[in-house]
Amino acid sequence: MTCWVTVGDLRRMEIIDCVTSVARPIHDFGDEFMSDEATAAVGLRAGFPPGRAFYCRGRFGVLGEAPEEVVRSVQGFLGPGLVTAGWRAGRAVMPAAEAAACYAGAVRQWGRAHIPADVDVEHFNHLAHRLIEAADGDALPLFAGWRAQPCPDNDPVGAAMQRVHVLREHRGACHLAAVRMCGLSARTAMVVDLGVEQATSYGWERPEPAAAQVIPLWRRAERLTDELQAPLYAALTAGERAEFARLVDELTASPVPRGPGA
């Protein structure tokens, strides 16, 4: 349950409640972008072969020309074979930095098509930028790489989507750290969270159902992820956290079509 404190006309949101309120919408909105055929089409037009090449080379290109085993260890939650194949296939198309820039362009393009027209993206960008800049990037290289990716000021809607993506990478990196700290493998965490069939679709070969004793460990990892993100949201006041949570809900809601040139 979300915890609100009323002081006069001001609605204030506690830190952990803000963390948990925005986590799922940010994750799911990013998932919609990543799985959309329109996103894949951007990669195909850029010369990437069908499959996961654009996804792997673009999303993980912020790490630079890293060896495959380094990319696999940083991203964590995808099966190693999927990442290796995608990274290798994408390497032949363009350098890592160029692929990351192309992927960032796809992020912004998708945002322009899917963020509802009535969202105050300027205010969202102001708050999201403060959150991202306040974050401690130590031990979170994928987040740090995406934070360093240029975000254009002249495209506020696209910039809002890129900041959603960066915040999603922050939570993903924190969650990977939390999972390992709780003694779980990434594969086990994926099976607990998504089930065997879905884990297979994310590249894990022959995953087995999770044993009952690992469920409490996964729940502990979820709580620890929230705690690792808490310093980020402490950068906002209680009132600003309430505003940010509201804006995230609006931004990730069913789209209201944007007009031409919006």
From TrEMBL:
InterPro entries assigned: HTH_67
Pfam annotation, one family: HTH_67
Domain of life: Bacteria
Name of the protein in its database record: Uncharacterized protein
Source organism (scientific name): Streptomyces gardneri
Top-level taxonomy: Bacteria, Bacillati, Actinomycetota, Actinomycetes, Kitasatosporales
